[in-house]
Amino acid sequence: MARFRTRLALLGPAAVLAAAALAPVQLAGSQPAAAAAAYQWVALGDSYTAGVIPAAGDTFEVPRDGCERTDQSYPQVIDRDLGSLFDLTNVSCGAATIEDITFRAQHPIGRHLPPFSEDPDYPFPAVPPQSEAVGPGTDVITVGAGGNTLGFADILFRCLQLADGSGGVGTPCKDALADDIPARLNKVGQDYDEMLTVLHERAPQAKILAVGYPTVIPEDTSKCGYNNWEQFGSITQGDLDWLRTDVLEPLNKVIEKSTGTQDTARFVDLYDSTLNHSVCDAGKWVEGIITPPAQPAVVHPNSRGHRNAADHVEAAMLDAIGVN
Q: Which pTM was predicted?
């Protein structure tokens, strides 16, 4: 990851020198115009893009729109790293489905997650479909979505309910929900294909970077303690294995497959780089059901996870515009 930031450090002075060489000579008495970023970037996505939880920073928009974009989320981190090169429009929104990105107005939920938390500003007005932020002048689009179309949060809460009283034994969630997963994954693929088509139509020249999901559940689920709510609460090890191999890993594969159907799209893998930083690892980059002191996190990346995502997405963005 350090090589990415080294490259960015070198990029700043180089970009300034290039701009100076190309800039017209100022006439006497004229005021220099503020330098404009060379590329227009639109960030789309769900809560894994927006940030949402306190462990991913503070919300910064006033008044709040309920999308809960945080200042340590990867679009904002990249904006600080590459702001002189890319002009960011960040319309990512917590709880967004692929359809909310493509064509449907979304009613954000903020941090209204009963029974875990009540948001005093809830309900929020609807926000437009995120794709409306994309246009012919857009150069780069990053999009991270699919988990809410899959219904991962609903699956997670259902697993918690089904595991109640299990003592950590068996696979009650797999037994109840496994038959439904292929249809859910098929829906993700269909919606993702439609989204990529719409984004390409709106911004024919843009490079689309489809950002995958990080490792959430470790390969060794014995790391996950039963009834540890800073991890996965009461979900059994057997169900965690099932969620990893039959739900979350296939979700990334579906997104990668859809991305491969578009010449202008590229998949950005976050899974491999986060293998040892799951919810149950000591150096975790994804929080569990709650974070101390009893704040809901509902399995979302923290600031370290967003910094890792920023490193990989930055590299893909620079490659997309030919800066190597």
A: 0.90
